[in-house]
Amino acid sequence: MPDKAWWLSLLTAIDAKDVPGFLAFLTPDAEFRFASAPSVYGREAVGALVRGFWDAIGGSRHRLIRTWQDAETAVCEGEVTYTRKDGSTLTVPFVNVFYLRDGKVARYLIHIDNSGLFS
């Protein structure tokens, strides 16, 4: 099950825009859903989606607040500060829900309202 180091490693990969490092946390057939967007399936589709999103922003910095888990799921609560291409920032809360299989994330569900990011 994920420990604090696992969570921090995942968030570090995201903040570094490290697509291969991020995808290493996922099962090959993983489902990934970002906010209210439709789910995508499989590492290739997830990689294309996150790469496109990361290319559209200047960067991000995640702050982990709390984690909890049971035998099949892991959840984290935090805040993310996005840096836009113009250098301005937006900080919003998030909750990620992970369904785990064989030590990897099989379903990655991000609950966030980042609608102000591109406005």
Can you put this structure into words, describing what you see?
There is one protein chain. With 119 residues, the protein is of the alpha+beta class. The chain has a single domain (4-112), classed as Nuclear Transport Factor 2, Chain: A (Roll), CATH 3.10.450. It is 26% helix and 46% strand. It has three helices and six strands, in the order H-H-E-E-H-E-E-E-E. It has helices at 4-15, 19-23, 43-56; strands spanning 26-34, 40-41, 59-69, 73-83, 89-101, 104-112. The protein has a six-stranded mixed β-sheet, covered by helices on one side. Strand 5 (89-101) and strand 6 form a beta hairpin. The chain starts with a helix and ends in a 7-residue tail after the last strand. The model has no long low-confidence stretch (mean pLDDT 96).
Residues in β-strands, percent: over 45%
The Cα radius of gyration reads: 14 Å
Give the H and E element order.
HHEEHEEEE
Mean pLDDT: 96
Q: In total, how many beta strands? A: 6
Strand order of the largest sheet: 2-1-6-5-4-3
**What's the N-to-C terminus distance?**
38 Å
Main sheet properties: 6 strands, mixed
What is the count of DSSP helices, taking H or I runs of 4+ residues? 3
- What shape does the CA trace take? globular
| CATH architecture tag | Roll
Which CATH class applies here? Alpha Beta
* Number of discrete domains: 1
As residue ranges, the low-confidence spans are none
Helix % is: 25-40%
CATH topological fold name = Nuclear Transport Factor 2, Chain: A
Secondary-structure class:
alpha+beta
